[in-house]
């Protein structure tokens, strides 16, 4: 249904009206959350169509996430009807793929080029480093990958990178960049960053191509402009063109909207410079500031305003609303992450009883691993949910890998599990070795695991010496941990196999932030195993795997989207809104993330992230925290997030202000519960720091490095922190220690593999 022009202006406030009808020069709309930036953008498109200023095919609108693009497409279609199909409404990346596929001859590349995702790109970089004979211990391929990504986001070519390299390592990286790009070219492939960079180069170097697109796109609109990086910024410039370039076309009408308080992608090279200097970049630009918020109630806004106010150097803006105070923000201090999840589930239950649709509810957390405690309780209580922008816990690769290891320990004939982990982490056992063993197993009618044993016994001819060595080590890993498993708990077995196989060490040695997330998820799996023992003290590994299989299975029951609670990280929530929002895990060390706490710049970004989280809520906002959260089975005391304590008392309704365990502790040490609000607990940060220091450690120690321990020794473990040795059994390579890490956490550790230092 087409809407007429005056209809499109109805209900807009004067500033929004001004922004929608403005024409003739570049337009910048800066405004706080929920003030209608995206609405202005979509109405501006519709208005240009309705007034005949533009045809649908002359419009390109760009945003950041696929979800945001889909939503924008929908909003526009609702306003302008089927002609919406002729505009480009997409993410930066998909717009670029479209251009590159059409103009492949001038790129030049094959029209059927592949797009490499981050994993593909990292694999290619690892191969490149190998070709350069670089020692992966000294030169981390993932770090190289990230550096190349930074270069591409800055539009720096390999030769420019080489020219500006000062140190040897910089020169090595620049050389790797060149070879990596050559390899991409040979594979007729582009990585994600190439999509933008190559499009910019295409438009800059081919005036006739640039002219085609400038003639076509007379209206360029960009949402979330605060999150553009340099390459994206240049892409916009190239599409718009300027007066005196040689394209012979007047510049397109450019509209950008954004909010520097919501810039949350600095780690991908985003710079708010682009929004702050828009008026410099486009001297005749017109700026509109929006201040009225239409999304949230005053109480929610006051909470969000108070949180962001602590960031320095921002253009102060005050958002206001005339939608009334609304309900107060509800606060809850839980004893643990499970108590927090139970509170949230109970609350949602009550809300749905009073008529709220589960689809109106969203729960945000800082990191993906936090979804697990929530998912578990939702599964148990039958609340429908979905995890957006992330994979459900038990479908995650690292969780499946770890469970495959456990199954391989429990069942030496579990061929599927053993083959899954055969070369994970990479141990030099390629497809060929796997095929040889599989064929041998098939011929003899034995399991894949038995074929490995046969190979180790020298019964399979034709295996290269290197392969045989790798097989011996893999076999030893499984048999040793099987031995250990005879009288160890599932959690201890999990730790042992993750250490012995080098799985965690490989992830820790990586610079890829995704791998850091994977380590966090494995810590969560450890927590699952530890909890299992609480509910079933006699349970063995087999019982544990059975229980997990049940949960993991019910996990995959599909439901209808509209009626489901949405679980997502704050990053994926950008630009969206929900009637009811739970901001969970509001603890210093969780949100703000532990790694950002000591760095003012990163802390400011965390604060913007918190602002994004709170401003998604329309009617009801909950802020919850857990006094104790476990990682690697180590409960950590976490103080309330500084973002939580920034919320003024008069808008906050505490359901429970001090957790039960905090009240206890406070009374036994006669400490005021308020003292939990001060600073970050040294224990937690020490643990994190040590984890990082342990990064280069290889999975297995040689004999000399196995610490000689005796009862009473103090030790430092990468994950558990400080502990006291209670007992040591076995000798040398078979030594196992029971270590008390405090708070009742006694761990059984294989000294040969445990990341442990004697103090
Ligand atoms: P964010 O910064 O989170 O991206 P935004 O500035 O893009 O937010 P929108 O999503 O466009 O804000 O609008 C927020 C909500 O306010 C939407 O539900 C929108 O429909 C509503 N809204 C915006 N302007 C008006 C208005 N003039 N009258 C009524 N509702 C409005
Ligand atoms: Mg928006």
From TrEMBL:
GO terms for biological process: DNA replication; recombinational repair; response to radiation. Its EC number is 5.6.2.4. ATP binds at residues 31-38. Keywords: ATP-binding, DNA-binding, Helicase, Hydrolase, Isomerase, Nucleotide-binding. Residues 10-297 form the UvrD-like helicase ATP-binding domain. Gene3D superfamilies: 1.10.10.160, P-loop containing nucleotide triphosphate hydrolases (3.40.50.300), PCRA, domain 4 (1.10.486.10). GO terms for cellular component: cytosol; DNA helicase complex. Belongs to the helicase family. UvrD subfamily. This is ATP-dependent DNA helicase. It comes from Bowdeniella nasicola.
């Amino acid at each position: 249904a087409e809407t007429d022009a005056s209809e499109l202006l109805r209900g807009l406030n004067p500033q929004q009206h001004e922004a929608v009808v403005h024409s003739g020069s570049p337009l910048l709309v800066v405004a706080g959350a929920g003030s209608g930036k995206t609405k202005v953008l979509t109405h501006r498109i519709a208005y240009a169509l309705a007034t005949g200023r533009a045809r649908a095919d002359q419009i390109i609108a760009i945003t950041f996430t696929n979800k945001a693009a889909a939503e924008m497409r929908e909003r526009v279609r609702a306003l302008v009807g089927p002609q919406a199909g002729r505009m480009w409404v997409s993410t930066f990346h998909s717009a670029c793929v479209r251009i590159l596929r059409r103009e492949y001859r001038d790129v030049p590349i094959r029209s059927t080029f592949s797009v490499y995702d981050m994993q593909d790109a990292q694999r290619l970089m690892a191969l490149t480093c190998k070709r350069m004979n670089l020692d992966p211990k000294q030169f981390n391929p993932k770090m190289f990958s990230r550096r190349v990504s930074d270069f591409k986001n800055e539009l720096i070519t390999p030769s420019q990178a080489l020219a500006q390299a000062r140190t040897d390592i910089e020169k090595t990286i620049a050389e790797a960049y060149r070879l990596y790009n050559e390899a991409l070219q040979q594979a007729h492939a582009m990585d994600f960053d190439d999509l933008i960079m190559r499009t910019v180069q295409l438009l800059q170097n081919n005036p006739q191509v640039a002219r085609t697109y400038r003639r076509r796109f007379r209206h360029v609109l960009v949402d979330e402009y605060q999150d553009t990086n340099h390459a994206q910024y240049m892409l916009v410039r190239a599409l718009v063109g300027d007066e005196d370039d040689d394209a012979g076309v007047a510049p397109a009408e450019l509209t950008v909207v954004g909010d520097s308080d919501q810039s949350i992608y600095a780690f991908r090279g985003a710079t708010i410079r682009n929004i702050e200097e828009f008026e410099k970049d486009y001297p005749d630009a017109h700026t509109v500031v929006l201040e009225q918020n239409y999304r949230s109630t005053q109480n929610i806004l006051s909470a969000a305003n108070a949180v962001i106010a602590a960031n320095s150097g921002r253009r102060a803006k005050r958002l206001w609303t005339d939608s009334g105070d609304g309900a107060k923000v509800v606060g809850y201090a839980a004893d643990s992450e499970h108590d927090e999840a139970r509170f949230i589930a109970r609350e949602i239950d009550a809300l749905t009883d009073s008529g709220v649709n589960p689809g109106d509810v969203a729960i945000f957390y800082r990191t993906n691993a936090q979804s697990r405690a929530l998912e578990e309780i939702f599964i148990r209580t039958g609340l429908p949910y979905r995890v957006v922008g992330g994979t459900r816990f038990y479908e995650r690769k690292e969780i499946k890998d770890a469970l495959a290891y456990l199954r391989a320990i429990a069942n030496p004939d579990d061929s599927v599990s053993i083959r899954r982990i055969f070369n994970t982490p990479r141990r030099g056992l390629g497809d060929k070795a796997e095929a040889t063993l599989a064929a041998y197993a098939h011929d003899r009618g034995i399991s894949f695991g038995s074929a490995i044993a046969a190979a180790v016994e020298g019964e399979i001819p034709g295996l290269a010496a290197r392969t045989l060595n790798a097989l011996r080590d893999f076999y030893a890993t499984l048999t040793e941990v099987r031995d250990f498993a005879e009288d160890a708990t599932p959690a201890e077995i999990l730790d042992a196999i993750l250490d012995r196989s080098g799985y965690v060490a490989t992830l820790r040695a990586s610079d890829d932030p995704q791998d850091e997330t994977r380590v966090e998820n494995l810590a969560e799996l450890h927590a699952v195993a530890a909890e299992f023992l609480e509910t079933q003290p006699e349970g063995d590994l087999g019982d544990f795997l059975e229980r997990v299989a049940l949960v993991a299975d019910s996990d995959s029951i599909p439901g209808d989207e509209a009626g489901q609670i949405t679980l997502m990280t704050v990053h994926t929530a950008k630009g969206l809104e929900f009637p009811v929002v739970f901001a969970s895990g509001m603890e210093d060390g969780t949100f703000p993330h532990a790694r950002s706490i000591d760095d003012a710049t990163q802390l400011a970004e965390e604060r913007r992230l918190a602002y994004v989280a709170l401003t998604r809520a329309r009617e009801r906002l909950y802020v919850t925290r857990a006094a104790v959260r476990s990682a690697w089975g180590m409960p950590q005391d976490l103080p309330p997030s500084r973002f939580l304590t920034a919320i003024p008392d008069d808008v906050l309704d505490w359901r429970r202000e001090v957790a039960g365990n905090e009240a206890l502790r406070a009374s036994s040490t006669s400490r005021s519960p308020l003292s939990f609000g001060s600073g970050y607990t040294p224990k937690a940060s020490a643990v994190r720091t040590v984890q990082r220091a342990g990064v280069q450690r290889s999975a297995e120690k040689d004999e000399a490095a196995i610490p000689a321990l005796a009862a009473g020794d103090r030790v430092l473990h990468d994950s558990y922190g400080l502990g006291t040795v209670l007992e040591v059994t076995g000798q040398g390579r078979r030594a196992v220690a029971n270590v008390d890490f405090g708070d009742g956490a006694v761990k059984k550790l294989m000294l040969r593999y445990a990341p442990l230092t004697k103090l």
